[in-house]
């Protein structure tokens, strides 16, 4: 039985690859819907980009909803400096023909969790946690129905990428992250500690390009664009594919290793706002609330990605 998921996303080139991987893997993953959130770029663009990617995958029937257009408490911070003005800079992709679904993404999350049997729907947030936390606040009855949350966000050893202390997704909406991490739902976290090891080297990008399909070409062109930023900033070999770690985990969890630990979100400090305070070394008595990943079999991850993208 494939695992039923809702992808909550702010595409983003790496979100795009995460969505493609999910849509290419129907044996393991059933995408109930995609909810867009403001993050890398504003909501209007993330809601459009999600549909562009569904059409690129040849799946125009996927339900895409627009969710929250701003964080719960803060002013929106975006990341065009990384992803470009559209969020999907790199390939030339046509505007989507498929329509956005009527209704709000948060309502879709609530209605879906109420309609499906308890413990059968996994939430996969790939951006700021605004939609998830808003749904939990508005409809607390759905919290215990969530099977698991598998998310990209945070960092411990790599610390921050948008500030010295904070990773982008958590930084953009720390209040939402705090609600999510305190919800009691089982959480799997793909922090920068993992995603910075999922680097698209030239050989790995050549493998995408060599697929010779519209999807392979688009993914290669997306990472060509996206890698400039990280190469310059970190001196790394290529772009980190952050968000696909989430969907890869649903297919091949054994690619990842980590620790079940306590993770708290800093919401008060101006200096470290949005920091994921991860008790990796077990120095507190705070109860574990998250499986915080620390390592990835990167070769296995890219082999899986290339194999699956070839199906689209
Ligand atoms: Ca994202």
Low-confidence runs = none
Strand order of the largest sheet: 3-2-1-4-5-6-12-9
Quick one: how many beta strands? 12
Count of DSSP helices? Answer: 12
From the N-terminal CA to the C-terminal CA, the straight-line distance is: 21 Å
Report the portion of residues in β strands: 15-25%
What overall geometry do the principal axes of the alpha carbons give? globular
- Overall average pLDDT: 97
Structural class computed from helices and strand pairing = alpha/beta
Helix percentage range: 25-40%
Textual characterization of the structure:
The strands form 3 sheets. This protein has an 8-stranded mixed β-sheet with strand order 3-2-1-4-5-6-12-9, with helices on both faces. Strands 7-8 form a two-stranded antiparallel ribbon. Helix content is 37%, strand content 18%. The model has no long low-confidence stretch (mean pLDDT 97). The chain is of the alpha/beta class and 312 residues long. Helix 1 (13-23) runs parallel beside helix 2 (43-56) and helix 9 packs antiparallel against helix 10 (214-234). Bound molecules: calcium ion.
């Amino acid at each position: 039985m494939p695992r039923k998921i809702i992808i909550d996303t702010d595409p983003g080139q790496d979100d795009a690859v995460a969505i493609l991987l999910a849509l290419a893997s129907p044996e393991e993953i059933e995408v109930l819907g995609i909810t867009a959130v403001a993050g890398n770029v504003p909501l209007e663009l993330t809601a459009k980009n999600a549909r562009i990617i569904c059409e690129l995958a040849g799946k125009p029937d996927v339900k895409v909803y627009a969710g929250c257009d701003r964080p719960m408490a803060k002013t929106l911070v975006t990341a065009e400096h990384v992803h470009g003005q559209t969020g999907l800079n790199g390939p030339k992709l046509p505007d989507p023909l498929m329509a956005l679904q009527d209704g709000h993404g948060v309502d879709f999350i609530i209605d879906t969790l109420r309609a499906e049997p308890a413990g059968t729907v996994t939430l996969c947030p790939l951006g700021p946690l605004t939609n998830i936390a808003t749904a939990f606040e508005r409809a607390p009855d759905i919290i215990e129905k969530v099977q698991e949350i598998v998310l990209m966000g945070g960092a411990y050893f790599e610390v921050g990428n948008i500030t010295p202390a904070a990773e982008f997704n958590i930084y953009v909406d720390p209040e939402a992250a705090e609600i999510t991490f305190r919800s009691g739902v089982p959480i799997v976290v793909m922090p920068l500690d993992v995603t910075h090891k999922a680097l698209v080297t030239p050989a790995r990008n050549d493998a995408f390009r060599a697929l010779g399909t519209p999807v392979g070409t688009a993914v290669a062109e997306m990472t060509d664009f996206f890698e400039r930023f990280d190469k310059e900033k970190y001196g790394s070999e290529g772009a980190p594919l952050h968000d696909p770690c989430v969907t890869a985990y649903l297919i091949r969890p054994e690619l990842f290793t980590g620790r079940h630990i306590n993770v708290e979100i800093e919401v008060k400090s101006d200096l470290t706002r949005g920091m994921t305070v991860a008790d990796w070394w077990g120095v507190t008595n705070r109860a574990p609330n998250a499986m915080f990943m620390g390592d990835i079999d990167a070769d296995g991850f890219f082999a899986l990605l290339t194999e699956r993208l070839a199906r689209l």
